[in-house]
TrEMBL record, chain A:
UniProt cross-references to SMART domains, sorted A to Z: CHASE (SM01079), HATPase_c (SM00387), HisKA (SM00388), REC (SM00448)
Keyword annotations of the record: Kinase, Membrane, Phosphoprotein, Transferase, Transmembrane, Transmembrane helix
Organism in which the protein naturally occurs: Hibiscus syriacus
Modified residues (4-aspartylphosphate): D912
Protein name: histidine kinase
Histidine kinase domain span: 390-680
Record's catalysed reaction(s): ATP + protein L-histidine = ADP + protein N-phospho-L-histidine
The EC number(s) this enzyme carries: 2.7.13.3
Subcellular location: Endoplasmic reticulum membrane
Residue stretches making up the Response regulatory domain: 705-835, 862-997
GO terms for MF: cytokinin receptor activity; phosphorelay sensor kinase activity; protein histidine kinase binding
GO terms for biological process, alphabetical: cellular response to abscisic acid stimulus; cellular response to cold; negative regulation of iron ion transport; phloem or xylem histogenesis; regulation of chlorophyll catabolic process; regulation of flower development; regulation of meristem development; regulation of seed germination
Pfam families: CHASE, HATPase_c, HisKA, Receiver_CRE1, Response_reg
PANTHER family with a match to the protein in the record: HISTIDINE KINASE 4, TWO-COMPONENT HISTIDINE KINASE
From TrEMBL, chain B:
The HPt domain, residue ranges: 39-141
Lineage of origin: Eukaryota, Viridiplantae, Streptophyta, Embryophyta, Tracheophyta
Full protein name: Histidine-containing phosphotransfer protein
Annotated localization: Cytoplasm, Cytosol; Nucleus
Gene3D superfamilies: HPT domain
Main localization, broad class: cytoplasm
GO CC entries: cytosol; nucleus
Length: 1005, 152
């Protein structure tokens, strides 16, 4: 027990380890998952980068805007400057022209053709030409010596700008002609103003137009400049020097430019006037620019200024125009919104990505969690199965003890009450054991530990066995139980008979449990037969629907086995007949072929179990195959059981490579059908080996002929199936009369092929039929007249009362009544009895549970017991001796090896596993090695049959105290043939030994 | 005959008491069943073998445990042997102590081992006494011409 506990702990541990491993391998994190901590940082980085980019975008767009603005400004400014310049030049030119006019008419003509009035008129009339000039005037050059004369001549004295008589100077320039607009300057000496004087001097020296610096004009208080042109009194030489010019100077023509209005006009003509601010400066003295136009302190956009040079034709004077925008550059909304939107979009994108990543992380976390849980759940499931297996196993052992003790108790002298109690306890215990076995099975299947055997077995005998198991119950209930196996199903198939039997037992057991009337019909077909039948079935549904019952005497009769309606019509006569007929024709035709190819391929069987029980409620139908589910809770109350059977059945069927399904109609019945796959077995090859599974039916009936009198064709077919197995030819008859006439005809003519040796009459038909009870006289009467042998008339019945039996006997039936369910062997026995065929019972099988069996098995066998423990050895030897074996002992593996040196005469060896020096496994391995060497050598020479088997192989059975699965596996691995648990138990021992000695039954005794 | 009957009843009572006290189990009954005309002294033979074995093993263990560096493996092997023998003969108590003994051996717990050795010795001598009484009864029955009743 200690060891076991340890082992199980170890197992748990290994499960845990496995879980860990699985989790370890499955934790494949993705990139996102593994960098989850970085996600917020990534987001932050992204936001920052995006903010940077959007500022950059904004700046770029803003810069572009500024550049464009600047360009606009400069182009506007240049344009204005150019225009101003042009206009100015035009004005200058007109002044120049005037100057030439004056010089021409005043000096070149003699007498002069121009006087004050003329000048005034002319200038007034040509003022349109000079829109920029507020007025023009002409001042004559008067040297001091000429002053008096000049004054006299004109009648006024030369005055200074301040309108005072001019002081004495070297030279004067009094205005003599003037445009009307500026007539107030007449007689003023232009030379009296510092600036004017300078101008005049410069102009006469260069001969060009000269400008004054800006000043307030006298009339309008606009800023203005005075333009001065020299007027020469004679033509100058082509390249005059300054002296020559001064010499030639006669006077000066001046014009006042009203620069302010000039610029105003000009700007007024241009678009965009409002937007920009224009200032015009005189920058002759660059350190102190003089404003000519515009306000000095006008606010505006001081940041952006454009300067354009102005050339007014006076090389001495420099002017420039400065333009600014009226308003500061407006904030660039486009740039701002673009950048902002870009930022927002990027922010959103970033957030979405972040959200997605977070989501992924979460989902993956969930996924991992789920995976972990799944692994854990699976582990728990495995653990559960293991636990179940262990616990069931542990429970089984004491339960066996309890049952055994109860059995012993029942054998003792007990009062009836005590006996009743003990029996009840035993029944309960048996039920518990069955349940535990089922749970164990289920757990085994779930743990995948159930392995199917592959041994040849006889299908029909299995069905017979199962039927016999339930015959008592069904008979008590009055339920007809029948099996039909198609002829095409091969006799021997390879598979797991035990498990197959379990399936059948489960299904039939269920049916028996839930059926109170009617029948239970088991049908086995080759799966290929199934197809045409299902087709027919669907056709039938189309034509007539499921209601194919025929109304007979007020109650519905169906063409099923018992006449009750079944859930699935496949077994009703129409289909069944179709099937059987087809089968027969095909069988005859293709018998050779089938024998040929059946040997090579597998067969798929279609088994259906039909009952007319309570059926399965519709709501419960989909959970029928789930463990521990019964149709409803009341079911288990009424019928008992755990509901585990069907789930095991399903597992087993699936293990065998088949499917299970059912059709059920509540209150009508259920039909469970399943397919399984088996290898078919070649009979010839099989016969070589062993023989215990083959059907041992008596062969004495071959060639006999029988008539089955039955109103129900399905039932008749079942009867025929069993008789056919005995080699009896069968014909059907619907009533006793027909049968009788058939037997009569046979005597006289060739109406039918067979003359019946036996007539089997169904009890129902006999009792209910119009023939009544005495109809058998027909046979008698006729038979008496003939020489033919009297056919035996036998009654078939599910259950029969003694009164009925008496009646039957009186009516002339043979003593024997064949009780249903029919089994070939049982029928054979009955027929033997009835026909008086003097067949002795075959040397019957020995009772399996009694010790005579094991005694028989072991009797005369020589067995080697290997155990290091003296006491154990003695006990084992004693036990084996008790069963009649000759026992020899060895106290160690080495000693055993020595004894088992070939050739030896031991029939088996029981080997302890735990031994010092050389344990059982090792010893077995060596023995096997020895044997295989010997076998090889033997194959080399001519095969000499020395040990009645072809080869050396002594059965070695392990003796072990712990029967854990692993140990048994190891036993088999190292070449042992099985194991016996210590201390010996008879049954256990028998099971282990039977495998090897069954093949040579005791012919001695 | 009365005497025989009485002795037989005594025998049955005694052996059932042994079972009830948990000194012997079903295995011993099995042994008794194995005894038949061919081997009339089977149980006694096995039992004496067991006693011999036991004494030898107990001595071995005692010696091994006395030594300075205890060879627990050797002790364990002896305990295993003893466990095997005792379960074969159906000496439940001895077997149970052996199980505890083995776990101490595995833990290399010398104190526990010594304690168990004591227990084993105790159980063994108890069993030996009881069995010898039983055999004596058996002998007496046989000597009186009775048959040994079969205990189920």
């Amino acid at each position: 027990m200690g060891r076991k506990l340890q082992q199980s702990q170890h197992q748990h541990h290994s499960v845990a380890v496995k879980v860990n491993e699985q989790m370890g391998t499955k934790r494949g994190y993705t990139f996102i998952q593994s960098n989850r901590a970085w996600l917020p940082k990534f987001l932050l980085l992204w936001v920052m980068v995006m903010a940077f980019i959007s500022t950059w975008i904004y700046k770029k767009m803003d810069a572009d805007n500024k550049v464009r603005r600047k360009e606009v400004l400069s182009s506007m400014c240049d344009q204005r400057a150019r225009m101003l310049q042009d206009q100015f030049c035009v004005s200058v030119n007109t002044v120049h022209a005037l100057a030439i006019l004056v010089s021409t008419f005043l000096y070149f003509k003699n007498p002069s053709a121009i006087d004050r009035e003329t000048f005034a008129e002319y200038t007034a009339r040509t003022a349109f030409e000079r829109p920029l000039l507020s007025g023009v005037a002409y001042a004559e050059r008067v040297v001091h010596s000429e002053r008096e004369e000049f004054e006299r001549q004109h009648g006024w004295t030369i005055k200074t700008m301040e309108r005072e008589p001019s002081p004495i100077r070297e030279e004067y320039a009094p205005v003599i002609f003037s445009q009307e607009t500026v007539s107030y300057i007449e007689s003023l000496d232009m030379m009296s103003g510092e600036e004017d004087q300078e101008n005049i001097l410069r102009s006469r020296a260069t001969g060009k137009a000269v400008l004054t610096s800006p000043f307030r004009l006298l009339g309008s208080h606009h800023l203005g400049v005075v333009l001065t042109f020299p007027v020469y009194k004679f033509m100058l030489p082509t390249r005059p020097t300054a002296e020559e010019r001064i010499e030639a100077t006669a006077g000066y023509l001046g014009g006042a430019f009203d620069v302010e209005s000039l610029v105003e006009n000009l700007l007024g003509q241009l678009a965009g006037n409002q937007a920009i601010l224009v200032n015009v400066y005189d920058i002759t003295n660059s350190s102190d620019p003089l404003i000519m136009y515009g306000h000095q302190n006008q606010d505006g956009d001081l940041a952006l200024v454009h300067q354009s040079k102005l050339d007014f034709g006076d090389p001495f004077r420099k002017h420039q125009m400065i333009c600014r925008y009226h308003q500061k550059a407006p904030t660039s909304w486009t740039a701002l919104t673009t950048a902002f939107l870009f930022f927002v979009i990027c922010l959103l994108v970033g957030y979405i990505l972040y959200g997605a990543a977070i989501h992924i992380v979460e989902v993956e976390d969930d996924f991992h969690e789920m995976q972990e849980l799944k692994v854990r759940a699976e582990a728990a499931d495995v653990a559960k199965s293991q636990f179940l297996a262990t616990v069931s196993h542990e429970i089984r052992t004491p339960m066996n003890g309890i049952l055994g003790m109860l059995a012993l108790l029942l054998d003792t002298d007990l009062s009836s009450t005590q006996r009743d109690y003990a029996q009840t306890a035993q029944v309960c215990g048996k039920a518990l054991i069955t349940l535990i076995n089922e749970v164990l099975d289920r757990a085994k299947i779930e743990a995948g530990k159930l392995e199917l055997e592959t041994v040849p077995f006889n299908l029909r005998s299995i069905f017979d066995d199962v039927l016999s198991l339930f015959s008592e119950k069904s008979r008590n209930k009055g339920v007809e139980l029948a099996v039909f196996i198609s002829d095409k199903v091969p006799e021997l198939i390879i598979g797991d008979p035990g498990r197959f039997r379990q399936i059948i037992t489960n299904l039939v057991g269920n049916s028996v449990k839930f059926t109170e009337r009617g029948h239970i019909f088991v049908k086995v077909l080759l799966a290929e037969n199934e197809k045409p039948v299902t087709e027919v079935k669907s056709e039938n549904y189309l034509n007539g629907g499921p209601d194919e019952g025929v109304l007979i005497s007020g109650a519905r009769h169906f063409k099923t086995l018992s006449g009750y309606e079944a859930a699935d019509e496949q077994n009703s006569w129409d289909h069944f007949n179709h099937l059987v007929m087809e089968e027969e024709s095909r069988y005859d035709a293709s018998i050779n072929m089938e024998v040929a190819d059946k040997a090579s391929r597998g067969v798929t069987l279609m088994v259906s179990v039909e009952d007319t029980g309570i059926g399965i409620p519709l709501i419960a139908q989909d959970r029928v195959f789930m463990p521990f589910m019964q149709a409803d809770s009341s079911t288990s109350r009424n019928y008992g059981g755990t509901g585990i059977g069907l789930s095991i059945t399903k597992c087993l069927v699936e293990l065998m490579g088949g499917h299970i399904g059912f059709i059920s109609r509540p209150q009508v019945g259920s039909t469970f059908s399943f397919t399984t796959h088996f290898e078919s077995c070649k009979k010839a090859s099989y016969n070589d080996t062993k023989k215990p599974v083959s059907e041992d039916l008596p062969s004495g009936f071959t060639g006999l002929k029988a008539i089955v009198v039955d109103g129900k064709p399905v039932r008749a077919a079942v009867t025929r199936y069993h008789l056919k197995r005995l080699g009896i030819l069968v014909e059907f008859a619907n009533s006793v009369k027909i049968a009788a006439s058939a037997s009569r005809q046979n005597g006289s003519s060739c109406g039918s092929k067979i003359r019946p040796d036996i007539i089997l009459v169904e009890k129902d038909l006999w009792l209910s039929g119009e023939d009544g009870g005495s109809s058998l006289q027909m046979f008698d009467g006729k038979q008496n007249g003939h020489v033919f042998k009297l056919p035996k008339v036998i009654l078939l019945a599910t259950n029969i009362t003694s009164a009925e039996l008496e009646k039957a006997k009186a009516a002339g039936f043979a003593d024997t009544v064949i009780m249903k369910p029919m089994r070939a062997s049982m029928v054979a026995a009955c027929l033997q009895q009835a026909l008086g065929i003097g067949k002795k019972r075959q040397p019957g099988k020995l009772m399996l549970n009694g010790s005579p069996v094991i005694q028989g098995l072991l009797c005369g066998k020589k067995i080697l017991v290997v155990d290091d423990n003296m006491v154990n050895r003695r006990v084992a030897a004693g036990a084996l001796k008790k069963f009649g074996a000759a026992v020899e002992c060895a106290e160690s593996g080495k000693a055993a090896l020595k004894l088992l040196q070939l050739p030896h005469c031991f029939d088996a060896c029981f080997m302890d596993i735990q031994m010092p020096e050389m344990d059982g496994f090792e010893a077995t391995r060596r023995i096997r090695m020895m044997e295989s060497q010997a076998n090889e050598r033997m194959h080399g020479c001519i095969k000499e049959d020395s040990a009645s088997r072809g080869e050396w192989h002594v059965p070695i059975l392990a003796m072990t105290a712990d029967v854990i699965h692993a140990t048994s596996d190891e036993c088999l691995k190292c070449g042992m043939d099985g194991y016996v648990s210590k201390p010996f138990e008879e049954e256990n021992l028998y099971q282990a030994v039977a495998k090897f000695f069954k093949s040579n039954p005791i012919s001695v005794s | 005959m009365d005497v025989v009957n009485q002795m037989q009843r005594q025998f049955v009572d005694y052996s059932t008491s042994l079972h009830r006290e948990g000194i012997l189990d079903d295995q011993f009954t099995q042994l008794q069943k194995l005894q038949d005309e061919n081997s009339p002294d089977f149980v006694v033979e096995v039992a004496s073998l067991f006693f011999e074995d036991c004494e030898k093993l107990i001595n071995n263990m005692a010696r091994a445990l006395e030594q300075q560096g205890v060879d627990f493996k050797q002790v364990d092997a002896s305990v295993h042997q003893l466990k095997g023998s005792s379960s074969s003969i159906g000496a439940v108590q001895v077997k149970n102590v052996c199980i505890a003994f083995r776990s101490f051996c595995e833990a290399q717990n010398r104190e526990g081992c010594l304690r168990c050795l004591q227990q084993v010795t105790h159980e063994y001598s108890l069993l030996k006494n009881k069995l010898q009484t039983l055999f004596r009864l058996e002998q007496q029955i046989l000597a009186a011409g009775g048959s040994i009743p079969v205990i189920e």
